[in-house]
Amino acid sequence: MFTAIRIYKTKVERLDEPTLHKIETEFTQILRTVPGFHAYRLIDSGNYSAASISFYETEEGALESIEKTREWVKANLSHLVEGPPTIFTGQQVFSELA
Q1: Is residue 97, in this structure, part of any structural domain at all?
Q2: 96: in domain
Q3: Neighbours of 73 (CB within 10 A)
């Protein structure tokens, strides 16, 4: 399992409901087209930053998601983010689920 993490500095303290709805209804559908997609999580810190985590079967899927995310954020959320995100990708080496 491979993971892609993106951390954004935002121009707003918290993401508003219309933005969250757009992410849920439009953006996640794009991620679902990436081969090996497993899950997506969005974390809003409430402190002018947000992070997303997505999980894929392969490294290629994780890398493809980074490119698709970059394009979508540029087209849809560039007015809300401060510069490019910090990106971290890698293979999951341990996981614990309840």
Answers
A1: no
A2: no
A3: 19
